[in-house]
Amino acid sequence: GCSDSDKKQGQARRAVPVAVAKAETGSVPVSIQAVGNVEAFQSVAIRTQVGGMITEQRVRDGQEVAAGDVLFVLDQRSFQSALKEAQGKLERDQAQLKKAEDDLTRYTGLKQKDVVSQQQFDQAQTDAKSLRGSIKLSEAQIEQARLQMEYSVIRAPIPGRVGSVLVNVGNVIKANDDRNLLVINQVQPIYVSFSVPEQYLAAITSRLGGQPLEVLAYVGGDSGDPEKGELAAVDNSVDRATGTIRLKGLFRNANKRLWPGLFARVTLNLANRENVLTVPSTAVQQGLQGSFVYVVGDKNVAEFRLVETGGAVGDRFVVTKGLEPGETVVVDGHVRLAPGVPVEAKPAPAGIPAKSAPAGGQAKPGQEGAS
């Protein structure tokens, strides 16, 4: 009987191996999570302003273009003919005006000598004035013909990426055709549009005059570093149906991870709270009495401690009550623990989060930001 009792006491005294980390203070963001859509910074549907047959196509599907790049060239022969015709009319009118002005000068001298009648003099004035008007009309026709020539070369109005080319070489298109030739989307920079509950509007607008508010975007299954941008626009009205306000974040999109049409998980960081106590999320356990942690003191004994948390920030929990900065908490090995059990404490391995949230850190999407 005594030997069995000794074994039980030995097992009770045997230290349970656990991984531990410190409860630390740091800076955590006050943030809002939402789901948004990626939108092009600018989007232009290319259409024609003049009619004709497409003779050149200098762009292909998915091509990157710069503002001013030639996309299509239309048959220019009719425009060239119209330009030459207008130039010919101008030269004719200029020659006729020269003769009319010479006649008017001569008639003016003869009129003073009463050699010509008033009617002949008035006719000379009218002819000269009419030809001056004809010259202005010819100059306008030349300008119009040159403009038509310019319109026959279709250029990219913005930089961006071309979608599908919808009309190819050999097709005849009419002026102001309702068909799109292609669509260009500018993706650098790029917008992410998202909505937040109206109760956050006052907090957002109160910070608009200061430093730009940081917006983080996670796309698809990407769990790496988010794209970082800033709040660019706040809608001018609240959606009555949903009680939300529409916002837009602007991103440089240097690596082109954001693409128009994608869904994105968005975090809007409003501010940072200083000196907030946090512990690794694996330290906080749930029991019948609520959230609790095991604290390891100087005697390496597990102490059961109820705590109150204030939300998750990344891979850590904010602790608002029940812990002091610098206390050691168990982050792995809870299964064999009970209050008063001796432990063999080891620092948390690399797989267990043990670092406090850095200043300016972000709340991971899908989790409630600290508030």
TrEMBL record:
Tell me, what's a Pfam family for it? Answer: Beta-barrel_RND
Organism of origin:
Fundidesulfovibrio putealis
Query: Which ranges carry the Multidrug resistance protein MdtA-like beta-barrel domain?
Result: 189-271
Q: Does the keyword Cell membrane apply?
A: yes
Q: Which family does it belong to?
A: Belongs to the membrane fusion protein (MFP) (TC 8.A.1) family.
Domain called Multidrug resistance protein MdtA-like C-terminal permuted SH3: residue spans:
275-333
Cell inner membrane as a keyword?
A: yes
Q: Which InterPro entries match?
A: MdtA-like_b-barrel (IPR058626), MdtA-like_BSH (IPR058625), MdtA-like_C (IPR058627), MdtA-like_HH (IPR058624), RND_pump_MFP (IPR006143)
The entry's localization annotation reads: Cell membrane
Which portions of the sequence form the region Disordered?
A: 344-371
Q: Which UniProt keywords apply?
A: Cell inner membrane, Cell membrane, Coiled coil, Membrane, Transport
- The entry's protein name is Efflux RND transporter periplasmic adaptor subunit
Segments forming a coiled coil: 83-148
What domain of life is recorded for the organism?
A: Bacteria
Multidrug resistance protein MdtA-like alpha-helical hairpin domain spans which residues? Answer: 83-152
Residue limits of the Multidrug resistance protein MdtA-like barrel-sandwich hybrid domain?
43-184
